[in-house]
Amino acid sequence: MSEVIPRLIVDGAVPLQPAISPDGRRVAYTVTTIGRKGEHPSGAIWVATTDGSASPRKLTAGTAKDFLPLWAPDSASLFFGSDRMRRGTAQLHRIPLDGGEAEALTAWEGGISGYLPLACGRLVAVVVTDRPAGEDVMVWGEQVPYGRLRLLDLDTGRSRAVDGLDGRHVVEVAQRPDGGPLAVLSRAAPDLDTGLFTGELHVIDLETGDVRELGGTAPDASTPTWWNADDGWHLCYLATTPPGPVGGRAVFDVTVPGTGPTSGPTSGPVGEHRNLTLGMTVCPSGLAQVADGPPLALFADGLDTAVHRLDPGTPGFRQVSSVRGFAGLLTVSRSGEVAAVVASTSYEPMNVHAGPPAGPLIRLSDTRPELRRVRWGSQERLSYQASDGLDLDGLLLLPPGRTRRDGPFPLVTLVHGGPYARHADQFMLAPIPSGQWLATAGYAVFLPNPRGGQGHGHDFAAAVAGAVGMEEWTDILSGIDLLISGGVADPDRLGIGGWSHGGFMAAWAVGQTGRFKAAVMGAGISDWGMLVATGEGGTTEAGLGGSCGWEGAGPHPHDRVSPISYASRIRTPVLILHGEDDTNVPLGQSVYFHRALRRFGVEHQFVVYPGEGHSIQDRDHQLDLLRRTRAWFDR
Questions:
Q1: Shared-domain flag, residues 343 and 456
Q2: Does 486 reside within a domain?
């Protein structure tokens, strides 16, 4: 059996962005390296048969960043984005299915951010990045790259702008399955602070250019999806449950006026945007359009994932099948008879799987065969109750070859990010501190799913609104105490860590208790008020922290849930890790925490990774992170 060394983790690859051909016979996907070995990321396009009858085939070399494959309507060729012409700027390309040289179809200065081949086979809707001319002086809001919609004619190579969107930032487009109009999802501006709450839906007639407004969407809308019912065409989409941004994702639906059996082409009022997942105890994570039937959807369901189909008669969703562990990035054939996802189970890494929506789905790709030579730690599902009786779940990893009877073990608790994320029952190996990386070093690892996360419905997710660190913290403690009382965890050798919101929880934990002997705060939040001021989410972060700094002289509600407020209590050694160019949780959050720990004489180490954003991408930085985190817990 092979030893688990950092290179084994960062030198692998992961499949992403699966896309099934309209005829359902093949699936294209991107394979991207985990650790970036240069200034720019790279990725290749692969193609596999959906029935597994042939081995996957590499279609592009992968020397540049090739991404987002989408099929031509006749399933005979593939479109994809690539920065091969100029690194860092994506353009649209097309390649025949039998291989050969890819043809560049665009050469816009700002590149593209999205596209959709249209049913006629002659046009492609392209979202072009409009970058205003740069100057030495930046005027706030005037030099932001907007997404603009254009229609590219493949026969002539010419494109024309789509008017009538009032200068709004185009996010996504979807064409009605019968070759009819385009649905366009837009925002008032590209930045998240302005954009998340300003989504609108439009329907554009491709022949006349007429634009019909379908009103404002719920916050952070994505994935517009057409479906047909007795009363005409509908559009559904994923968005955050109002008032947002805390409360989890939901599927919303709106009737498109003028598409019923007796309606004129432009008649009828705009209907309300209805929540189709209201009251469900699972959380939608993906939508897929079907030509001749209602859409399919993926739902996070506790530690597993479920495939659902919209029931027009309810309207609501009914489960079609269940996928053990994690599944994401749902794509379906035009008929809806074949589906594909990227999926992972306890001991199998992420791969592309395909089959009928009712299952079973078979594995098509095999991107990490070298991992089968390793003896991994055992992974166990946990079900337990919070202090107030709420049902919770999570995962426990034990060192390879060990059982609960061999305990107690030193225990590291790894908290997921988000907070609207989850630990599904998937293979836990990643460049950030991960379960298997620590389990193979002799640790027991607890992966809790406290309230605020995905997979248990709206109320579970919304419980942390304005109250992060409160009940979610006691949820985590309940799990730790359960493992201690069961003889699994040594109460004198407890550690905690996480990234992003998990980093916040690590910083919060050491200010609430002295039970932990070591902590790792990765890209974590120390002050929610400062995050509102400087993070790319802006005022949306107040939904978690509870307030903004400009709401009077204070103290503010966010002070109560900010780890920096409790820094004087900390005695636990803390390893602080952060990317220098992080715009999601800016570096200043860690600088503030570092200065507080230094002021109170707390043992800590502060590590900054130059050129990195919210996630660490560079191979050498990932290697350092893995070695450094395990060494910190070992000390």
A1: no
A2: yes
Record the tokens describing residue 612, joined without a space.
Answer: 């990195």
Range of the domain at 31: 6-135+143-370
* Long-range CB contacts for residues 616-621, cutoff 8 Å, separation at least 24: 616/431, 616/432, 616/579, 617/35, 617/36, 617/41, 618/35, 618/36, 619/10, 619/11, 619/35, 619/36, 619/37
Provide the b/e sequence for 1-27 (b: ≥16 CB within 10 Å): eeebebebbbbbbbbbbbbbbbbbebb
What sign has the CA pseudo-torsion 25, 119, 203, 259?
Answer: negative
Longest dimension (CA), the chain: 75
State the Cα–Cα distance between residues 125 and 159, nearest whole angstrom: 9
28 and 174 fall within a common domain? yes
Local structure of 354: helix, strand or coil = strand
Inter-CA distances, 326 with 83, 339, 368, 567, Å: 30, 15, 17, 37
Residues 258 and 311 in one domain: yes
**Domain end position, chosen among 345, 370, 395:** 370
Q: Are 110 and 91 in contact (CB under 8 A)?
A: no
Q: How confident is the model at residue 283 (pLDDT cuts 50, 70, 90)?
A: very high
Which range is least confidently modeled, 5-14, 256-265, 537-546? 256-265
Task: Please tell me the predicted confidence (pLDDT) of residue 132.
Answer: 72
Q: Which residue has the higher pLDDT, 131 or 238?
A: 238
Domain boundary residue, one of 342, 370, 398: 370
The average confidence (pLDDT) of the chain is 94
Residues 438 and 533 in one domain: yes
